[in-house]
Specification:
single chain, mainly beta, 5-stranded antiparallel beta sheet, 5 strands, about 0% helix, globular
């Protein structure tokens, strides 16, 4: 894995966004809260629990889909 993630990292990923005009990928960013291990088809898959900025619910994203954000701190 090219990046080493730790809880507290600001991460980015792309997700499908459907609006009235088109279906496109949109960039999202959020705070990595936890890295979970799940067994899927006899393999261990790493899943990131993320709180997206501006959202009120967590998202669960495969860790390999994430990049560390270029943003360091918002404070």
């Amino acid at each position: 894995m090219a990046h080493k993630f730790t809880p507290g990292d600001i991460v980015s990923w792309k997700s499908w966004a459907i609006n009235l005009e088109s279906e496109v990928f949109e960039a999202k960013e959020g705070l990595l809260l936890e890295i979970l291990e799940e067994n899927r088809l006899e393999n261990i898959v790493l899943i990131a629990k993320i709180m997206p900025f501006g959202a009120s619910e967590y998202e669960f994203i495969p860790l390999f889909s994430l990049k560390k954000s270029q943003k360091q701190d918002y404070l």
